[in-house]
C-alpha cells in the first residue's frame, strides 16, 4: 500500500473517458482515499458506520455517473448501456487505478445498494428479477428475493441471519463474494429518469397526436423517444438492452404502454398523470394495430426506395454525360436506357406510395372517427342517465316552473302594493334654511369663545417662565467688569 498523500495526475488526453472521470473526483486525488474505497471495507459496517456509509455513498455516485454519461466499459463496437450496470471483469479492469489496482471490495457497496432494508426501493436491482417480476417494483419485495441464484446457493451454506445478506457475505472468501455479485444490475433511479424523459416527449407532442401516433415500432421508439435523454451525455439513443428494460418499467410499473416484443402502444396522453403514470394501461395490441404498423412501415420503405432510385437516376445521367464527353455513344446510350428503366420503376413506386398514403390517411380518419363515436356514445349514455332522474320528469318540471312563475307574480304584486302605500313627506325649504343659519351662527360663536381662552392660556404660560438666578448674577458681574474696564 502506498503512503503518498496524492494520486499521480495524468493528462486527460492520456486517459480514456472513464479514467478521466475518476481522475476528476475529489476522492481520487488521494491514494489513501482510493485505497480505502477499493479495499474490502465491509467489516467497517459495524466498527465505523459513518465511514462505511460514506464509502457506499461515493460508489453510488460513481455508478450513477458512469451509467448516465455512458462511460461503462463495453466490448468494442457495442453501445454502452446506461440503465444496466454489468458487474464483471470488464468493469473491474476499467476501474483499475495506477498504484492501487482493481476495486476488489466492490461487492460490498453493490450488496448494500441492492438491500431493500436500507433502500426502498433499492438503487440496484437484479436485471433477471427486474424483467421477470410481475408486481410493480415500487411495491417492493423481500431483500432476499433480490439476491441472485448463485448467491442464494452460496449463502445457504453459511450461518447467519437468513435475510441479512451482508452478514452472510462476511463469512465467504473473496472469490465467493465476487461470484455472488458478478451479474447485471438495473439502476432504478436512472430507469425512473429515463421514463420521465420518454413520457415527457410523448405527452409534449399530444397536440398533434392521432390515435395512430400512439403506435411505435421498437426502432421508432428508440430513435424518437430515447435519444439524448440524459444531459451532458452523448446524444445517442439508448442501447437495445436498455430499451427493453425501460419498456418493461413503462409497461409494468407505470402502465403507460403495452409492448409485445415488436410493437409499442401508448395510452392516450390525457390519461397520464403528472407523476408519469396511468391508472389503467392501454388495451392489448390487436390485428388492427399490427396492420397499421405494417402500412406505415411499407410507406417508410417506399420513401427510402424512391430516394435510392432518384439517386441512381442522377448517377446514370451523370454517367451518360461523361461517356458523351469521351465520344463513347454506345455506353452513353446504355446509361440512358438504364435511366429510362429507373424512371419507369420510380413511376410505379410513386403510384404505390400514393395509394398507400391515401389508405393510411383513411385509416387515420377512421381511427379518429371510432374515438369520436365512442365519445358520442359515452355522452349520450351520460345524458340519458341524467334525464332518467325522476326530478327531470316532464310533468314535474312543468309543474315546478308554473309554481315558480306564480310565486314571482305574487312577489311583484306585494312590491307594487308597498310602493303604492308609501306616503312621501313634503319638505319645508324655509325650515331647512333656518336650521342651516342656526348651525352657522353656533359655529361662529364657538370660534369666538375659543380665541380669548387661548390668549389667556398663552399669557399664563409666559408668566410661568422665570430666568434662573445664576443667569442674573452672572449678568451683574459682567456689568461690573465692564464698568471697571471703562474707568
Automatic annotation (TrEMBL):
Query: Which ranges of the sequence are coiled-coil?
Result: 292-319
Keyword Coiled coil appears in the UniProt entry: yes
Entry-linked InterPro entries: Snf7_fam
Question: Which terms under GO biological process does the entry name?
Answer: late endosome to vacuole transport via multivesicular body sorting pathway; vesicle budding from membrane
This protein's UniProt keywords: Coiled coil
Got a GO cellular component term for this one? Answer: ESCRT III complex
Q: Tell me which Pfam families the record gives.
A: Snf7
This chain belongs to which protein, by name? Answer: Uncharacterized protein
From the broadest rank down, the organism's phylogenetic lineage runs: Eukaryota, Fungi, Dikarya, Basidiomycota, Pucciniomycotina
Amino acid at each position: 500500500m502506498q503512503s503518498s498523500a496524492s494520486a499521480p495526475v495524468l493528462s486527460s488526453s492520456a486517459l480514456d473517458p472513464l479514467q478521466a472521470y475518476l481522475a476528476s473526483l475529489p476522492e481520487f486525488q488521494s491514494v489513501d482515499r482510493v485505497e480505502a474505497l477499493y479495499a474490502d471495507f465491509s467489516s467497517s459496517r459495524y466498527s465505523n458506520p459513518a465511514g462505511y456509509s460514506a464509502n457506499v455513498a461515493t460508489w453510488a455516485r460513481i455508478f450513477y455517473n458512469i451509467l448516465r454519461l455512458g462511460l461503462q466499459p463495453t466490448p468494442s463496437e457495442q453501445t454502452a448501456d446506461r440503465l444496466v450496470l454489468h458487474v464483471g471483469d470488464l468493469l473491474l479492469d476499467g476501474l483499475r487505478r495506477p498504484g492501487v489496482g482493481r476495486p476488489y471490495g466492490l461487492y460490498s457497496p453493490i450488496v448494500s445498494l441492492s438491500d431493500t432494508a436500507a433502500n426502498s426501493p433499492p438503487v440496484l436491482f437484479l436485471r433477471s428479477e427486474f424483467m421477470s417480476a410481475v408486481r410493480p417494483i415500487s411495491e417492493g419485495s423481500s431483500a432476499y428475493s433480490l439476491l441472485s441464484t448463485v448467491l442464494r446457493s452460496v449463502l445457504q451454506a453459511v450461518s447467519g441471519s437468513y435475510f441479512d445478506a451482508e452478514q452472510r457475505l462476511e463469512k465467504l472468501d473473496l472469490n465467493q463474494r465476487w461470484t455472488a455479485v458478478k451479474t447485471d444490475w438495473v439502476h432504478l433511479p436512472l430507469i425512473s429518469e429515463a421514463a420521465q424523459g420518454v413520457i415527457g416527449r410523448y405527452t409534449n407532442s399530444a397536440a398533434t397526436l392521432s390515435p395512430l401516433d400512439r403506435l411505435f415500432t421498437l426502432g421508432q421508439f428508440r430513435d424518437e423517444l430515447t435519444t439524448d435523454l440524459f444531459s451532458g451525455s452523448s446524444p445517442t439513443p439508448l442501447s437495445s438492452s436498455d430499451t427493453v428494460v425501460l419498456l418493461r418499467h413503462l409497461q409494468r410499473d407505470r402502465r403507460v404502454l403495452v409492448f409485445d416484443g415488436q410493437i409499442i402502444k401508448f395510452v392516450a396522453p390525457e390519461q397520464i398523470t403528472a407523476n408519469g403514470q396511468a391508472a389503467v394501461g392501454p388495451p392489448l395490441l390487436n390485428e388492427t394495430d399490427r396492420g397499421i404498423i405494417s402500412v406505415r412501415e411499407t410507406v417508410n420503405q417506399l420513401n427510402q426506395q424512391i430516394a435510392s432510385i432518384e439517386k441512381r437516376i442522377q448517377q446514370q445521367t451523370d454517367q451518360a454525360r461523361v461517356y458523351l464527353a469521351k465520344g463513347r455513344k454506345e455506353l452513353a446510350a446504355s446509361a440512358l436506357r438504364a435511366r429510362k428503366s429507373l424512371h419507369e420503376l420510380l413511376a410505379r413506386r410513386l403510384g404505390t406510395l400514393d395509394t398507400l398514403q391515401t389508405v393510411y390517411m383513411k385509416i387515420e380518419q377512421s381511427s379518429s372517427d371510432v374515438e369520436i363515436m365512442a365519445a358520442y356514445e359515452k355522452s349520450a349514455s351520460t345524458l340519458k342517465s341524467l334525464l332518467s332522474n325522476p326530478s327531470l320528469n316532464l310533468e314535474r318540471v312543468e309543474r315546478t316552473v308554473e309554481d315558480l312563475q306564480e310565486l314571482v307574480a305574487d312577489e311583484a304584486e306585494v312590491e307594487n302594493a308597498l310602493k303604492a302605500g308609501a306616503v312621501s313627506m313634503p319638505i319645508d325649504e324655509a325650515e331647512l334654511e333656518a336650521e342651516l343659519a342656526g348651525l352657522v351662527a353656533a359655529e361662529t360663536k364657538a370660534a369666538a369663545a375659543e380665541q380669548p381662552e387661548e390668549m389667556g392660556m398663552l399669557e399664563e404660560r409666559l408668566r410661568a417662565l422665570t430666568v434662573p438666578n445664576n443667569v442674573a448674577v452672572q449678568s451683574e458681574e459682567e456689568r461690573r467688569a465692564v464698568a471697571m474696564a471703562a474707568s
